[in-house]
UniProtKB/TrEMBL annotation:
Residue intervals of the Acyl-CoA dehydrogenase/oxidase N-terminal domain: 16-128
Segments forming domain Acyl-CoA oxidase/dehydrogenase middle: 132-221
Pfam families to which the protein is assigned, alphabetical: Acyl-CoA_dh_1, Acyl-CoA_dh_M, Acyl-CoA_dh_N
Cofactor names: FAD
InterPro entries: Acyl-CoA_Oxase/DH_mid-dom, Acyl-CoA_Oxase/DH_mid-dom_sf, AcylCo_DH-like_C, AcylCo_DH/oxidase_C, AcylCoA_DH/ox_N, AcylCoA_DH/ox_N_sf, AcylCoA_DH/oxidase_NM_dom_sf, Glutaryl-CoA_DH_mitochondrial
Domain named Acyl-CoA dehydrogenase/oxidase C-terminal: residues: 234-381
Similarity field: Belongs to the acyl-CoA dehydrogenase family.
Keyword Amino-acid biosynthesis carried by entry: no
Annotated keywords: FAD, Flavoprotein, Oxidoreductase, Transit peptide
SUPFAM superfamilies recorded: Acyl-CoA dehydrogenase C-terminal domain-like, Acyl-CoA dehydrogenase NM domain-like
Organism: Phytohabitans aurantiacus
Listed name of the protein: Glutaryl-CoA dehydrogenase
């Protein structure tokens, strides 16, 4: 199998041998370690995240686009291909890797002290330590500038108080990057999860991203040494630049989920017969398949173009919004359309399609909702901010 079903426009020819090699290694690990189990993980709402983290660490997938400290130093394109293959398994599995590498590790790598980097990055690159990233709060999601989590001085120490909500990996994490207000400015803190005053609770009853651990983090006067602050992070720009990293992985990853749905729909419709013929022989089915393949290939070219800009060092945040908005929106439309092709089987966990569709509902919301990305693009087009 090529990168996309039938690879209609030969996107494989746009990649180096090394990129294609990374793709096939990640595809293999997903086939071996994720695909056979993921329907059960999803159903049970449990995933062996720490075990997977160590396996992904061995393959160099954690913080793979970062350099030094045991990180692989891969290109943005290679990282994107890895995200695509992981999310073809499940969005929750890709989330595990993006939160670790693009959010928690990136924040420490980009804004941390030498001591913070030496202590955490090598452990996180191997998956021995799992990280999480706490920006969202119960009352402040799209508008993190209004956060109420605060850090105040107590002698040389810091005391952190507040609540972070919807934090991927929090219940299983060893360390959190927590964003908090210090006076009027936003600052970042590296918080070991066993710090007294820090508790993480699993959020239950999720109907989406069930193969991923999501939690609430409560900080109740959690005492941290002076050295816990990220010295290079000043203001909201710091966490937002971490989001720019993670949104690139999502631009690719969402295509993986869509690809898996389209593969399933093609295989199903060519074998399922109604009215004495395969349902794939009906023109209405073929129109659906063709339209989905076209969107998938367009999204691929967009993701590749943006990652090449990232590798050239010229990618801008609003360009990332174009990718995240389009590719997640189209991936969700593809997943829903594929579900119709599977008929009643489309709602069964025996097939991956509704699981992907349900997951993509979270992906549409996290890392900036589709509306927020529309507004970011709108601001660029008009020079008029419409957030407030
Ligand atoms: P605004 O005044 O626009 O910006 C403040 C400063 O930040 C700069 N900036 C960025 N820099 C890098 N990357 C970006 N994406 C940036 N966006 C803005 C900006 O230039 C400015 O710099 P400076 O030097 O002037 O100070 O800030 P605002 O308060 O008006 O907010 C803008 C808005 C709404 C776009 C932003 O708040 C936003 O993106 N909101 C969405 C929140 C969000 O995406 N949260 C995600 C939480 S993490 C998560 O969901 C993980 S999911 C798990 C997984 O990934 O798998
Ligand atoms: P709100 O901000 O309340 O938005 C609700 C609705 O209002 C949306 O449709 C939104 O687009 C719309 N809206 C808001 N403001 C405007 C506006 N100005 N104009 C037009 N429409 C607007 N966060 C983390 O920090 N770390 C994580 O690891 C993390 N993991 C997550 C995992 C999952 C499974 C999920 C579901 C979320 C996760 N999040 C995480 C949180 C995620 O980033 C937020 O849910 C997201 O930013 C949206 O915030 P909200 O849910 O509070 O929605």
């Amino acid at each position: 199998m090529g990168t996309l079903p039938l690879d209609l426009i030969n996107v494989d020819s746009l990649h180096s041998d090394e990129e294609l090699q990374i793709r096939s290694v990640v595809r293999q690990v997903v086939d071996d370690r994720v695909r056979p189990h993921v329907a059960r993980w999803y159903e049970e709402g449990r995933v062996p995240a720490r075990e997977l983290a160590r396996e992904f660490g061995k393959l160099g997938l954690l913080g793979m686009h970062l350099t030094g400290y045991g990180c692989a130093g891969a290109s943005a394109v290679a990282y994107g291909l890895a995200c695509m293959e992981l999310e073809a398994g499940d969005s929750g599995v890709r989330s595990l890797v993006s939160v670790q590498g693009s959010l928690a590790m990136y924040a420490i790598w980009r804004f941390g002290s030498d001591e913070q980097k030496q202590r955490w990055l090598p452990l996180m690159a191997t998956g021995e330590a799992v990280g999480c990233f706490g920006l969202t709060e119960p009352d402040h999601g799209s508008d993190p500038a209004s956060m109420t989590t605060r850090a105040r001085r107590s002698g040389d120490d810091w005391l952190l108080s507040g609540t972070k909500m919807w934090i991927t990996n929090a219940p299983i994490a060893d360390v959190a990057v927590i964003w908090a207000r210090v006076d009027e400015r936003v600052a970042g803190f590296v918080v070991p999860m066993d710090t007294p005053g820090v508790t993480a609770r699993e959020i239950g009853h999720k109907l989406s991203l069930r193969a991923s651990s999501t939690g609430e983090v409560v900080l109740d006067d959690a005492r941290l040494p002076a050295s816990a602050i990220l010295p290079e992070a000043s203001g909201l720009k710091a966490p937002l630049s971490c989001l720019t990293e993670a949104r690139q992985g999502i631009t690719w990853g969402s295509l993986g989920a869509a690809r898996d749905c389209l593969h399933t729909a093609i295989a199903y419709s060519t074998s399922r017969e109604q009215f004495g013929r395969p349902i794939a022989s009906f023109q209405l089915t073929q129109a659906k398949l063709a339209d989905m393949a076209v969107e998938l290939h367009k999204g691929y070219l967009l993701a590749l173009h943006l990652s090449r800009l990232a590798d050239a060092g010229t990618l801008r945040p609003e360009q990332v919004s174009v990718g995240k908005l389009n590719n997640v929106r189209e991936a969700l439309a593809i997943a829903r359309q594929c579900r119709t092709i599977l008929g009643a089987n489309g709602i069964s966990g025996e097939y991956p399609v509704l699981r992907h569709a349900n997951n993509l509902e979270s992906v549409l919301t996290y890392e900036g909702t589709s509306e927020i990305h529309q507004l970011i693009i709108g601001q660029r087009l008009t020079d008029l901010p419409a957030f407030i």
